[in-house]
Every structure is written in C-alpha cells, then in structure tokens.
Design goal:
By secondary structure, this protein is an all-alpha fold. Helix content is about 40%, strand content about 0%. The chain has five helices and no strands.
Length: about 110
C-alpha cells in the first residue's frame, strides 16, 4: 500500500506542476534577458514563438513563458534558435555580468 505523506507531492500528478514553486533556484539564467530583448522589440511571447517556428523550431508560447520565468531548462540548440530569432549573439542572451565570460582573453 502506498501512502502519501502531507507536504509531499502526489506522484500521480505531472511533476512539472511542482517545479519552481516558492524560493527554488531558477532552471536557467537567460530567461529575464530573453524577456527584455523580446520586450524591446515590442513582441509578444506568441510572436517570438512564431518567429522561432518559422525558423524550424517547434516551440509554443507556453514554452517561451517557462523559459522567461526560469522554470524550463534551456538546451544549447535552443539558445542558438532564440539568438537567431532575436537577431542577437548567444552571449547577449546571458545577464550582463556573465557576458564577460564569453570575451576572448588577452
């Protein structure tokens, strides 16, 4: 017999429901920058998803929202697609403080 203790998620429900509730660490650091770049272009999340889809990446507005909210982990190929859609370099998707890590060392 399986008993569920109070305070533990019911494993019969989708796990994604429990991600990033409360004070948990974000699953990516590019989300806020992607949201800012999208807003600078006056694009909605649906518009960014549509531009990505035209490039061949099957992504929904909901996925864009989860990336921007730090709930979804972002793969390297997804970073390339987002950079291409927003017409920026991949380092520009990262917070300003982390962009210096991409500069060549002298």
């Amino acid at each position: 017999m399986i008993r569920f203790l109070s305070g533990f998620p019911d494993i019969r429900k989708p796990f994604c429901v429990y991600l990033n509730r409360g004070m948990e660490a974000p699953r990516n650091i590019v989300g806020p920058q992607i949201a800012a770049l999208r807003s600078q272009r006056n694009w909605s999340q649906a518009k960014l998803a549509a531009v990505c889809q035209l490039q061949g990446w099957d992504v929904s507005r909901g996925v864009i929202a989860r990336i921007e909210g730090g709930v979804k982990w972002v793969a390297d190929i997804e970073l390339l697609e987002l950079a291409k859609a927003l017409k920026v370099s991949v380092p520009e998707l990262f917070p300003k403080k982390d962009q210096k890590a991409f500069r060549p060392r002298s």
